Amino acid sequence: MTRSVAGVFALAAVLTLGACGTTYVDTEITVPDTSPDATTTTLPPVDPDAPIDELLTEIETLMIDLDERIIERSGHIAQLERLQEVWRAAEQQIRAVDPDDVFNFQQAIDLAESGVEGIRPADASKGYKIINDVIDDYLDRA
Prior knowledge:
This protein is an all-alpha fold. Helices cover about 70% and strands about 0% of the residues. The protein has a domain at about 50-140.
């Protein structure tokens, strides 16, 4: 029995000491300033009567670096909220002219949403590629 007790203690010691590891502190990570004096940028409300090409240009601009913002976890939620606002205005205009085109745009917007909500930058990247093609095609026909 003495051997088995000693074996149990040796195993417990190995498992306990093996769980200890080196802790690294990444000093390059910065925390955004959330103090009351922190500067915030407020965008003007989306004009639902803005020309469609301006709305689509803003959508494309919002989606171009969304994948990077998701990776950095910096501003991606606010960017998605603005994207959704602009899309609501653009969708009304597109639906009024050619409702069949809404589906293609919606696919890209859905990918942007799943990218932000699921922390999946690849979805946002794919959404940008789709929106880029869809906007070019739509404006070429307009």
